[in-house]
Amino acid sequence: MTAENITRVILNNHIPSGIPKPSDFTVETVSAPTAEILKDNELLVRPLYLSCDPYMRNRIKGNGGFYVPDIQAKAAITGHGVCVVEASSSNKFAPGDHITTGLFDWAQKAIVPAEGRRKVSETDRVSLVDYIGVLGMPSFTAYVGTVVLGNPKKGETLLVTSAAGAVGQMVVQLAKARGLRVVAVAGSDDKIEFVKTLGADVAFNYKTCGNFEHAIHQAAPEGIDIYFDNVGGEFLDAALMNMRHHGRVIPCGMASQYNIAADDEYRMENFSQVIIRKLTIIGFLVMEYYPTASFTEFIAEVSTLYACGKITYKIDEIVGLENGPAALIDVFDGNSVGRRIIRV
Amino acid sequence: MTAENITRVILNNHIPSGIPKPSDFTVETVSAPTAEILKDNELLVRPLYLSCDPYMRNRIKGNGGFYVPDIQAKAAITGHGVCVVEASSSNKFAPGDHITTGLFDWAQKAIVPAEGRRKVSETDRVSLVDYIGVLGMPSFTAYVGTVVLGNPKKGETLLVTSAAGAVGQMVVQLAKARGLRVVAVAGSDDKIEFVKTLGADVAFNYKTCGNFEHAIHQAAPEGIDIYFDNVGGEFLDAALMNMRHHGRVIPCGMASQYNIAADDEYRMENFSQVIIRKLTIIGFLVMEYYPTASFTEFIAEVSTLYACGKITYKIDEIVGLENGPAALIDVFDGNSVGRRIIRV
């Protein structure tokens, strides 16, 4: 029997700054790993869907300073996904199982640790792709930040940036479902149209709005109670000047800083507003909420709302792992609406 | 009957930046206000003690951007104190009562609103000066930040700046009483000696320690669980790089920035650590905790510990309101150990 060939995507070298280019990645053909080389508690998996997420930019800088380990130079890209198990040395998973949670290689087949994975199944209400979509990590991130930590109260105003992205689209809908007024910010007219269809009360394009502080004030003269921050940098500073007293800031991502060299990162001017306005800022890592009661509540609420059509979730699907680098670069460059996934 | 003359201290003009000078204030002699001009719910009071606090620097900049109203140019300095009521148009207070809480004019007699004042009495355990000392606003500030918001756990490490000040000295002792390891930072060798007598496990002088980030790491190689921040600026940035995951930052003051012009204020580099280290930052205003269950608990705990000698509180007393400007300037310049008060 001859060895099976598979496609794999590797990072050529760390990319400290700038928008990555196609030449920063290699799509290569290699021999597939086989069940014979499984060690204890490992799985041979075949990814069905892999995701391209903004936070991955920080994992290819080579600075090791992020909350998820760096992707190594000359090694496969790793990210979230939904896979089918082809072989298992774990008593928790069997061939044919579908799994998600944790990182998977961008390869048509890969060996991964069984630890921390979660078995998922297709039902009449939920398809496999939904586990990387409406029930996926970014969606749960939105839930933890908005519902668990944000302490939202009916009638309050929530501001969210990257509102058309994988996290933002769910923040908008969860906040609206709780009776909040939602101000959504995104970077193109298409995205603005999209977030309005999700229920955002006001939406504006940060690339054309002019002064951020003024634009937020125009959109929310009453001030902001919760700022769900996906971008950091100058916009965060502007948001601080618009927070109501006792407001909550949920710093979830810093997309505005991901492509910037360390020395050029934005330096914050308005931190004193935390004292003046008595703000609470809560950093969190969504992985620490798997599994918790919050995760159970998330699955129950969101799968129900989704099944009855009260929540939508936009997936921006690209077909073929060989198109992975371009798909990922698009996300880093802001050229994607919804959650960008690769159908492997 | 001829009018009674009193001493009063006024601010000549707003002082946007720099350490204030004696010539920025006027000690003047004016006619005393009298009971005849009391409106409804006002008190004619005679201050016994007035305090000089670092936060007052932000109230003489004329920018109106702080959490306590600006002191007006050509008007009396206002601050915390303990007063005796000489006349009252409020049914809550009678002549001879002692009161505290809220702001009082720096004048030997003044008319103030009765609203928000609190009656206090001398007992065999507590003298009047203690209401501006161990039971005063800075001490309660330490309690709210450390105990109510900091969520301290035995064995954790707490870092506090301005540790020899009115707030810091109580933070050190409250944390030690709860079994925390305490790293105390102050700006002179005298202050360092003082905070060690309070129980600080390690203490260092920020003026001579060299690189802040390194100095904190040397003092707490295990990392910081709670940073009680009285200084802001560069030291806060350095502390963020030393926080343990899930650490709490209690931004209480920004003494490093108070004498600096707005354009020269420090710009923060390390805010991304809030996400990376999953930190919680909680701004608060102590006045919002009067009266609450926390205040009752504070009085009960601290007055008991104080009466049995398990807590001390250093007061740095200056006699005579005419010495008020110099006493205040000392505090802004860091030349005071403990809480600086004026015995009027």
Explained architecture:
By secondary structure, chain A is an alpha/beta fold. Chain A folds into two domains: 159 residues, Alpha-Beta Complex (Quinone Oxidoreductase, Chain A, domain 1), CATH 3.90.180; 151 residues, NAD(P)-binding Rossmann-like Domain (Rossmann fold). Chain A is 22% helix and 26% strand. In chain A, the strands form four sheets. In chain A, strands 3, 5, 6, 8, 9, 16 and 17 form a seven-stranded mixed sheet that branches. A six-stranded parallel sheet of chain A has the order 12-11-10-13-14-15, with helices on both faces. A two-stranded antiparallel ribbon of chain A has the order 1-2. In chain A, helix 2 links the parallel strand 10 and strand 11. The longest helix of chain A has 15 residues. Chain A is globular and about 70 Å long. The model of chain A has no long low-confidence stretch (mean pLDDT 95). Chains A and B meet through helix 6 and strand 15 of A and helix 6 and strand 15 of B. Strand 15 of chain A pairs antiparallel with strand 15 of chain B, so a sheet runs across the interface. Chains A, B: GO terms for molecular function: oxidoreductase activity, acting on the CH-CH group of donors, NAD or NADP as acceptor.
